[in-house]
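One-letter codes give the sequence; the fold follows as tokens. Both lines appear below.
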Amino acid sequence: MNELSPNPGRLMGSAPGNQWRVGANHVSLVRPAVESRPVALSAEPQDLVVDAARSAFVVVDMQNDFCAKGGFLDYRGVDITPDRKPIDPIARIVPRLRAFGVPIIWLNWGVRADLLNASPALLHAHNPDGQGADLGGTIPGGAPILLEGGWGAAIVDGLVPDARDIRVTKYRYSGFWDTELDSILRNLGVQSLFFAGVNADQCVMSTLQDAMFLGYDCILVEDCVGTTSPAYCLQATLYNVKLLYGFVTRSAAIAHALEKAKHSG
């Protein structure tokens, strides 16, 4: 066996905590140590200590087709007011998390123009009577519906992504289904996920459930989610998250916890 070299060459890997060190004759598979950054916050059903160094904030479907006038839900006659309520709390907490080094992930719907990633069942769910424009079709006088790269798939005004943020496109209710989301999170060394976005009982919940099944810690941020469904749907979502899938907190609790951790550190 060759003598071990403490520094066999250059770092290889896109994430700081998941890198080899590679040289001509030696490769070190020992990843760099990631220092924990514990953050204590109020939550239900129990308070939490979360490692910010191994956490990410996932914002689901805060895009024009669900949250803006002239978008898909508005075109279908749905009152989008509940889907707009999370805009302000998300806008306030995201810069704080970003400044603390927590990755921000924007997870948005976006189907192919040829709809080859959209099954009849998916199309029917969005247009059950077959009347009017379908996914990928164009709203009369408006934009294509949930088309990847289109206006409907763009992040709604009031939320400002940063160049450091990560964008993932999905085309199912769960953001983990046939996307790169899980690979990205594992490469980043993320274990705990905060969830925000719309609709709480649909895409947010589907993504959160899959995250828990994959072994992630799941924390729903109550004031950062919304839904156009009846109130009992949100109540059931909160109940089931606390009962089965993880924890529920609020953005003010996160902000307080980050501020406390910053001063104590």
Observations:
- The longest strand covers residues 217-226.
- The longest helix spans residues 231-245.
- The mean pLDDT is 95.
- The chain has two domains: 1-33, 34-264.
